[in-house]
Amino acid sequence: MILFPNKCFRILMIFLMVGALFACSDENSVVNTGTDTITSFEDSSSNEDSTSLMDTSSLEDTTSIEDSSLTDVSQSVPDVPEDVGQDTGEPDTTEPPVEDTIYAGWIGGACETDAVCDYDDSLCLTEVDTDLPGGMCSQDCDLYCPDQGEAITTFCVDGTYLGLFDSGGYCAMRCDYAVSASGCRPGYVCESLPRYNDPSTVIATCVPGTETEPPDNPPIGITNCQQELTNRGVGFTVGVNNMDSPAGHPNIICDVQDPVMIEPTIHGVTYRYASVNGAANSIYTSCQLALAIEETSLWLAEQNVTDVIHLGVYNCRLISGVSPPTLSEHGLANAIDIAGFRNADGSIYTVIDDWELNTSFPVTVPGSFLKWFVETVFENWIYNIILTPDYNAAHHDHFHCDLTPGAHFLQ
Question: What is the pLDDT of residues 339-370, one digit of tens each?
Fold first, then answer.
């Protein structure tokens, strides 16, 4: 009996110990499970829940980007440069296109049809047909071309120089520094070209091209004197030195140095030939005389003179009554004969009517003005020799003003 209880006791104890072990295991399981739970949560978060969240987030974000209306809006909005609409604070320096109005309606001017070229026997070389920039008014020619208002502004050249397939003669525009600094219209440059059927005569002429495309036959650079004319605002074209000879003297040559054709109006003063209502034509002159005429114009403009009456500049002749034969300064285009003036108030002073002979102090207003004029241009060395009616009867109606080198004489 004693053994039974002991055995039972032992069994019971074993049972209790096992139960205790299970109980401890449960407690430890709670603690450990808690730890494991935390660890398991962390692991689960990182391996399962995290992945699930990441994937879900990725799917949600993708869905929201691809399917949302914002995506459609962003796709419908074009790309806009960052600086559009922004005020940079800097002034707009963009220049409007230059309007091509040089020689409008005349030889060398822009055109789209023949009707734009307003002169007889006109011809429009259109840009469509010829690739000439803006088209060009022209005319067929064999040697010479018409000039507008006595201004020598055209030249007859072979059509191939203009880029045409036709090798016939066509009228083109001479380089004219009165209309632009380059002497030509936009899209054209100066080239030294021979006259059609007269290759010995070469003139700077406008042909298609740009400053970045050097011309095939670049003109001789403008001289220092011509540059000075440009700086002073005198319009001119380069002239031709014909190397003429006075009648009966073939061994004497009228060699005009640096010839130019200057515009007849300078600083508001217009030079008219022979009378106050005479034609205002371009003047063929040496460049040095052109500078003298420009200085003369400045003085006259200050006195409200609007017009000068002149009797000519170039004349290939000898000085009358001089032996041995001596070329006149007119033969070198170095002299101008001035006959009178018209003022802004309409009054007219002429040498033939208003010069007071052999007097130092004229008593009339016109006489005083004429005296002031010759003394002013002499004292300022604008001209080297000035001959008045006081010199001889041959000058009774004009002042002879020339640039004889080394001289300084007034009478």
Answer: 999 999 999 999 999 999 999 999 999 999 99
**Tokens 């650079």 identify what position?**
221
- Where on the phi/psi map is residue 327: left (φ > 0), alpha (ψ -120 to 50), or beta? beta
- Per-residue H/E/C for 119-175: CCCCEEECHHHHCCCCCEEECECCCCCCCECCECCEEEEEHHHHCCCCCCEEEEEEC
Backbone angles phi, psi at 345, to 5 degrees: -85, 0
Tell me what pLDDT residue 14 has: 52
Kindly tell me the burial class for residue 298, based on how many C-beta atoms sit within 10 Å of its own C-beta (0-12, 13-18, 19 or more): middle
Task: Collect all residues with Cβ–Cβ distance below 8 Å to 127 and sequence separation of at least 6.
Answer: 112, 133, 134, 135
> Is the pTM value of this prediction over 0.85?
no
Pick the CATH number of 236-410 from 2.60.40, 2.60.120, 3.40.1000, 3.30.1380: 3.30.1380
The domain spans of the chain are 114-220, 236-410
Residue 250 neighbours by CB distance under 10 Å: 8
